Each structure stands twice: as C-alpha cells, then as structure tokens.
Amino acid sequence: MLKSHVKFHSVEGKRLILIVDDEAANRALLGLITEDEYEVLYAEDGAEALRLMRENAAYLSIVLLDLSMPEVNGFEVMEQARADEALSDIPIIVLTSELEAEVKSLQMGAVDFIPKPFNMPEVIKARIQKAIELHESRTIIQSTEREGKTGLFNKEYFYRYGEQFDGFHPDMPMDAVSIDINHFHLINELYGRRKGDEVLVHLADYLKNLRRETNCIVGRIEGDKFYIYTPANKIEYGIVSREINSHFDEFHDINVSVRTGIYQNVDKSIDIERRFDRAVLASNMIKGDYSRLVAYYDAKTHEKKLFEERLLAEVGDAVRQGQFYVNYQPKYNIKGDEPVLASAEALVRWNHPYLGVISPGVFIPLLEDNGLIHMIDRFVWEEVVRCLGDWKKEGVSVPVSINVSRMDLYNRNLREDIDGLLESHDLDRSDLYMEITESSYSDDVDQILEVVDNLHEAGFLIEMDDFGTGYSSLSMLAEAPIDVLKMDMRFIQNLNNDRQEAMIRMIMDIAAFMGLLVVAEGVETKEQVDFLKSTGCDIIQGFYFSKPLSAEDFEKRLRDEKER
Ligand code: C2E
Ligand code: MG
Ligand code: MG
Questions:
Q1: Closest Cα to atom 34, ligand 1: which residue?
Q2: How confident is the model at residue 139 (pLDDT cuts 50, 70, 90)?
Q3: Is the Cβ atom of 435 under 6 angstroms away from ligand 1?
C-alpha cells in the first residue's frame, strides 16, 4: 500500500482542518470563514491540538495554529509535531499578530501565516486553499503519484486513493467512469504526437475543473484513458460528455470526441480495478459509434462479455475435439422452368457440449475481432475440400462457396494456402467460390483489393456477400473484382411495399449493367421466388428451397439431383 498524503475526509468529500486557538471568538470567526468548504475540528489549547492531530493524522489536511496560548503554546506544538513522524507531514499555518513570530514560525516549518485580526475572510480562505494544494501537489509529485503529462493521478495512485476514499465512506454510493478519446491513435498518427499530447492535456484540464467543482477523483490511467471515481448522482454524465466535446472545438483543424462508460452505484465487494473494468466494458460497447457519447454498464452486457470470453477461451480445444462441423445450404438457379441445384454455401456450426449448437452469427464476429477466425475458417476449408473431393470423385459435385473473413484477407499467402488444399484433393479453382462480405472492403481497401484481385485472377469466383449492408457499396463495385452479388437478406425479408421492390429492381439493374450475377439470400416463400424471378434474379438461396444441410443430407440431395 502506498503511503497516502492526500486526505479526503468528510461525507461530502470535504477536507478536514483543525483550528487551534484559546480564544473562543477567534475559533468561531475562523470557523465561520472555513466551515462551508472544510470539515473543521477545534482545539482550545496546545495539548488538545496535539491529541486531535494524533487522532486524525491520516486525514488532516491542515492545522491553523495560534501561537500564544497558555500551557502548551503554538511553538511547542510545532516542535512536538515536527519530532513526531506521524505528525511531521501535516502542514501548519500559524495565526499571529507579531511580525517576529511569523519569521520564527516559518523557520520552524510552518507553511504560511495568517495575520490577526481576521478581517479579510477571502484572503484567509485563499491562503488555506493554496497551502493545502501546494502541500498535496508536493507530496504527490515527490512520491511520483501523478503522471507527468497531465498532472493527474496515475493508475496506481488513482486506485489507492479511491480505496482510501471508500475506507472513509463505506456506505456512500459511488460511480466508476471511464473516458476515452475516440480514435486517439489516429490523431497521433495524422497530426503528430505533440498534437496528441495537447489533446490529452486539454482533456485533463477539463477534468481538473470538474474535480474542483464536484470533488471527484480523477486519474489518467494510460494513453487516452481517464478514470473518474465519484459519489453517485454528482455528475450529469450526458452534459459533461457534451461539454468535453465542445471543449475540443478549440482544435479547429481536428475533430476530437470522447466516449464515456459508466458503472453506476458500484458493487464495493469487488476490487476497484474490476469496477473500472466494467466502466470500460460499457464504453467499449459504443466504440466506433460516434452517435453515442455515453454508455452505462449493465449486468446483461457483462454476462454477454463473460459468455464471449468463455467461447474465446474454449475455441481452440473445441476445434481439436471436433465440436465444429459444416453445413451446406443449396443455391438454386431459377432461370429455367425448373430450379436447378447450382452450388452451395458452406456454413459452420459449433456443437458445444454444454451450450448446444451455437450460431455462427454469435461466434464468428467474436473470433474476427480477436483474430482467431483463421482457425475456424481453415477448419471449414479443409472440411469442404475433403467432402468436395469425395463428391467430385463420385461425379455428383457442385461448386461450394466458402466464407472468407476479412481477417483471412490479411494473409498474403491465402491463394497459395487454398491452392494447396485443392491440390491435395484433386480439385480445381473452379470448384470453390469465395464469399467476401461487403463490409470487408471498407477495412483496408488497398490491401484487400490486392488479395481479392489475386484470387480473382487465379480463377476463383468472387461473391460479394451481404451486399447492401456495408457503406462502400457502389464505388467498391466499380473497383473490386466481383462476379456475383449476394443481396443481403434484409432486402427480401422486408419486401412488403413498392419502394422495397423498387430497391431490388435497382440492384438488379446495377448488376446487369456491371455484368454480375445476383444471388438472393434468405428467400422463404413462393411469392418471394416469383417476384425475384420477375426481376431477372439468377440464383436463390433460402429456406424455401432448403435449410442448411449436414454433409450427408447434402450428398443425398446431390445424388437426387443427378438422377432427375
Ligand atoms: P451469410 O454468409 O450471409 O450466410 C447466410 C446466413 O443466412 C446463414 O446463417 C444461413 O443459415 C441463413 N439463411 C439462409 N437461408 C435463410 C432463410 O431463408 N431465412 C433466414 N432467416 N436465414 C437464412 P448462419 O449459418 O447463421 O451464418 C451466419 C453468418 O456467419 C454467415 O452469413 C456468414 O457471414 C458467417 N459464417 C458462417 N459460416 C462461416 C464460416 O465458415 N466462416 C466465416 N468466416 N463466416 C461464416
Ligand atoms: Mg456467406
Ligand atoms: Mg450473406
């Protein structure tokens, strides 16, 4: 435990001061001046002063000490305090009307003096505050508890300070708040680290002001992450977030904004670090969503997070233990009178021993975010070429689409890897189609285009999956080497008015103009099929024709189709 020099005492977060004077009128007057800002203790003589100092050594912010008192006078109090390790660190301001005494007391270690009579309350208040601030900053800097750039508490000290506060106020409801600057690394990269530092200091200044107004505890935890620990209901988070963002308007040239995650009314039975993890969790929920400034932690989010962590931790073993398998969903060509089985999409499934079958919609995005997706995709591809190899030998195969995740596209050897798999089962590039989601193309366009170009040139058929959900659609269509548009299933499933129909017809027109085939996904009803047929749509995938099938069932379907 660090030795703490900053004292935060009363329920309101007020600092504790001790007024020592033998004259009741002086005590009352000083009390009047200070009581709204501080919690105040009083002593009538030196002995009582020393006793109160010992009792409150851990929390006392300052002592206002009269010099001339009967019995133990002010000088003696100072002497004894200085000799006592527990008291030597408490700053003392002397109260005196004698000029000589001032010099002597300063020499003895008093931090300041207040002349009697007390006729300038504002000056007295300012001196007390200044003395406390100076003392606190000095001790904090001495023990490297503040970090250099912003002068805020560093992580270690922030936590210890928070714990100390809790120790004094075990029953006070508290909020844990995390503030992050959106895409801070970009600010550093685009405008230089110095600008980045300016942004940090600017935010820190705002937070210092907030600290002054609300008595919250503020720390810079790392990089662009700031924490606030505050009594609940003291800060209007929505207002503060908006204020911070407009505070950044000063940076005319760059657009700076923050996101705020709040864990309200913290559970004090968990570590303070974990409480802030929860605030961060909330903040991460709105990462990248610039329309939301503030997010609150809730248990559901937390459970989801725990669930996700569990899946992530288990995925490696699950692959080795064969918990994953592949389904095949047929795609039918509807150009002619009779629909014809044209190809299929390989869709992965996770049969978890306790959780049952988990949808890829749940674990794929998770694995993509954590860079583990290649494990699954590799497994799926191996599985697909193994089955395809068998089917081809039997003479019943159709091409199968695999889903290539945007993470796979960062693998520069993707083509070689897949070629290797095909060769080992006597397959050709024309046996495998590749579905790449449209949103992949908005990541790192150049790199992705290079890999996709490479695949396309080699002869793989490229399908743009979930077309219409990304945001780069039209411009990307012109640039990316695409053969097939897979229209996102939302288009079909919302097909209930003229405008939706017009949308689909427009997509069909664009595709025709660009010479692309169109696959409609999520087709469930006869009406949808008929409509799509009327628009010139080529291929349909959906429950209307078939749900995703196990490898055995799909093989059966292949054989049936062959016999027709
Ligand atoms: P996707 O590639 O767009 O796949 C189509 C999804 O639509 C599949 O969901 C499929 O089961 C579902 N679907 C098909 N027909 C219908 C229908 O008529 N009605 C409805 N409501 N749904 C239909 P699934 O299997 O849950 O897969 C979800 C997503 O997970 C896929 O979307 C794909 O992006 C991803 N995914 C699946 N398998 C893999 C894989 O092996 N690798 C990668 N990277 N992603 C995969
Ligand atoms: Mg797909
Ligand atoms: Mg799709």
A1: 403
A2: low
A3: yes
CA angle 51, 111, 8 (to 5 degrees): 60
> Is 522 close to ligand 1, i.e. is its CB under 6 Å away?
yes
Closest ligand 1 atom, CA of 548? 11
Q: Which of 331, 345, 359, 521 to mutate to test the pocket of ligand 1 (most atoms within 8 A of CB)?
A: 521
SS (H, E, C) 125-181: HHHHHHHHHHHHHHHHHHCCCECCCCCCECHHHHHHHHHHHHHHCCCCCEEEEEEEE
Query: To 10 degrees, what angle do helices 272-285 and 299-320 make?
Result: 90
Cα atoms found within 13 Å of the Cα of residue 50, Cβ hemisphere only: 17
> Using one digit for the tens of pLDDT, what is the confidence trace for 250-267?
887 788 899 999 999 999
Element (H, E) at 185: helix 184-191
Question: Listing from the earlier edge strand, what are the strands of the sheet with 217-222?
Answer: 217-222, 225-231, 174-181, 258-263, 294-296
Distance CA 31, CA 420 (A): 85
What rounded mean pLDDT belongs to the chain?
A: 89
pTM of the model: 0.61
At position 503, the amino acid (one-letter code) is M
Identify which of 347, 400, 440, 466 to mutate to test ligand 1's pocket (most ligand atoms within 8 A of the CB): 347
Q: What length does the chain have?
A: 564
Residues 399-404, mean pLDDT to the nearest whole number: 96
Q: Which ligand minimizes its atom distance to the CA of 492?
A: 1
Cβ–ligand 1 distance for 182 under 6 Å, the answer: no
| Beta-carbon count within 10 A of 430 CB | 11
Please tell me whether the peptide bond between 399 and the residue prior to it is cis, using omega within 30 degrees of 0. no
Neighbours of ion ligand 3 (CB under 5 A): 465-466, 521
| CA of 492 relative to ligand 3 center, distance in Å | 12
Distance 519 CA to ligand 3 centre (A): 10
374-390 tens-digit pLDDT: 999 999 999 999 999 99
Nearest partner of 92 among 53, 65, 123, 55, judged by Cα? 65
pLDDT at 4: 45
SS3 351: strand
224 lines ligand 1 (CB under 6 A): no
